[in-house]
Amino acid sequence: MYRANQNGQPQRGNADGLRQNCLNGRQAASVSQPPMTISEQFRESWLTAIIGSIMFATGMCLLFWNEGRAVKVAHSLDEALRNVIVLPNSMMLSPEYEGRLIHLSGPLLVSEPLTEPDYGVVMSSVKLKRRVQMYQWVEIEEEQSFGGITEDEKHYYYTTEWKDKLVDSDHFYIRTGHHNPKEMPIKSQVQIADEVKIGAFTLGMELKKKFSDFVEITSDERPERKNIKMHSGLYYHSADLWNPQVGDIRIQFSYAGKSGDVYSVVGLLEKDTIKPYYTSHGEEILLQRRHKISVDQMFHLEHVHNYWRTWTVR
């Protein structure tokens, strides 16, 4: 634990200062003050009034924008629902559906699996995510307060944690003995499969990016590299995973959209690829849900999402 005040100097005379302030306050309270004129009141509060006016105007603009966006999205969803075509068979392409908004359901088919060779991870899915964490020093700053009065003195604590991003130790109050590496030796990333289909229809890149229901991979298969250890589905670059050192790395893998899982999608059919559809209001329609879901259910869920997003901003 380390202590410092804002000037880097210890504090003295806090009790005497507080006692004198209290006495001055009691003396001032007994003196009758003449009422302030309107001009004096304005000079006292002009900055607060301006800030309040700006905040009010900003809030009103945000409210109008949010309400307008909600109506625009709702009308776009209704328009898309009127124009969508439900495909009876996802295995058959037909020229009559070209350039139309379509809905179809079926199991995913991933042409080539995604791999992480160094860790023996092979997953036939739309996405494969690698999450990298580094063991680093972390600074915790606390301010002491007594009786609701916050002191200038600050306390600094240093501990070690697994972090997803680099922690810059150059900005620590006490840098000695608390040095973090300058870069991650291994980067986090998300791989996306080149070709994904539902029946005869190919999912475009924008649609593949919408797969976000990640599931952690908990494999018991040990990697071939001896310098990589494994525990509870995590891969450790550490000499001792029970006693990690600053700079050690651990990695977790997860996937989204496993091959064979059933999904329902709505989008524009262009040749054999499903891409974003744009309504007359300029809103993008490109929907994806797991399991076999009817077109009415999919649009109902989008209306619910729009409703809650609107209330969140309100």
TrEMBL record:
Topology in membrane: Multi-pass membrane protein
Keywords, comma-separated and alphabetical: Endoplasmic reticulum, Membrane, Nucleus, Transmembrane, Transmembrane helix
Pfam family, one: TMEM43
Cellular compartments annotated: Endomembrane system; Endoplasmic reticulum membrane; Nucleus envelope
Biological process terms in GO annotation: lipid metabolic process; nuclear membrane organization
Transmembrane segments: 46-65
Any single GO CC term annotated in Swiss-Prot or TrEMBL for this entry: nuclear inner membrane
Keyword Endoplasmic reticulum belongs to the record: yes
Domain of life: Eukaryota
Family: Belongs to the TMEM43 family.
Protein name, entry field: Transmembrane protein 43 homolog
Protein source organism: Pogonomyrmex barbatus (red harvester ant)
Underlying gene: LOC105430307
